Amino acid sequence: MNPSKKPIFLTQFLIEEQRSAGKLQPNLRLLLEVVARACKRISIAVGKGALGGVLGDAGTGNIQGEAQKKLDVISNEILLEANEWGGHLAGLASEEMDHPHAIPDQYPKGGYLLLFDPLDGSSNIDVNVSVGTIFSVLRVPEGVTQASEADFLQPGVKQVAAGYCVYGPSTTMVLTLGKGVHQFTLDRELGSFVLTQRDMMIPEDTQEFSINMSNQRFWEEPVKRYIDECVAGKSGPRGKDFNMRWVASMVADVHRIITRGGIFMYPIDSKTKAQGGKLRLLYEANPMSMIIEQAGGAATTGRERIMDLQPSKLHQRVPVIMGSKNEVELATQYHG
Ligand code: AFP
């Protein structure tokens, strides 16, 4: 951001998007503002750390059999509470809930569906490493007021907006409405998101890969080949040295890639094959794929474009390879 220029707040940005040829529907604008407000509350809760008494396990598990952290549960509740009454939604779905959350009877229903991972990377909370919120917005099928699970099973290409928030040294929100990717930074004193980068673009080439190397022995041949060639560096077939980074919060790894390029991989392996992969399609892979593609990158399962997949269940998992276009294409090409 140019400090001599007047800041553009998220509200102003969204109103301008709405005005320019009616690109953004008023109800979608309201939805995004409400999500942003919820993220500010999550950011405050995360930022208090041990002082807020919010660290540690909640003592419960989610549908994926993963232990829930207190902040997973708190973040989920913040997003539900913020969004259920506004009249812009016909349903919400979350990583932390087995089934979609119905809009309570007393509130009006709207034309959108909101899906989210309320606190991605939550195993990093207790060690004070970046975590984040990922969200995806779909249109509710025509004629539906109270959405059922089947209404959420739409391919990623149907998303009307997607975004994530990283709760790191600063809180940043990255948003796409289907035309470019924009970054907002939370001004903590003002309590407002300020536009800090318009039209983010991922470099097409990179020398940085991101994968959990401890899974190496479980990988399929194409992934082994791709990573072996990166690791071989200058003297290998790629003829250049590669660096490696793995935060283990997808939001943080993808944010780095959007900022300076790279390839992020959570491929299918023999450990996760039975469940279809590690990461969730509807509220992790799809929104991140939309953002990555809108920023000029690519996102595949290794075999197909992620956003073309027809989901078959709410908590479906998929293999994920995303980031700098030329690297994703090469890794995908190795899958034959
Ligand atoms: P948690 O939210 O349970 O910490 O999972 C985070 C995540 O889904 C994704 O954000 C990371 O990229 C990935 O898992 C890390 O997985 P590994 O722990 O297997 O490296």
Features:
336 residues; alpha+beta; 7 helices; binds 1,6-di-O-phosphono-alpha-D-fructofuranose
Could you characterize what this model shows?
The longest helix is centred in the N-terminal third of the chain and has 23 residues, at 26-48. The mean pLDDT is 95. The termini are far apart. The strands form four sheets. The protein has a seven-stranded mixed sheet with strand order 3-4-5-6-7-8-9, with helices on both faces. By secondary structure, the protein is an alpha+beta fold. Helix 2 (26-48) packs antiparallel against helix 3 and helix 4 (221-232) crosses helix 7 (325-334). The chain has helices at 10-19, 26-48, 70-83, 221-232, 250-260, 281-294, 325-334; strands at 57-61, 67-69, 89-94, 112-120, 131-139, 161-167, 171-176, 181-187, 192-197, 208-210, 243-244, 263-266, 279-280, 298-300, 317-318, 320-323. The radius of gyration is 19 Å and the shape is globular. 1,6-di-O-phosphono-alpha-D-fructofuranose binds next to loops.
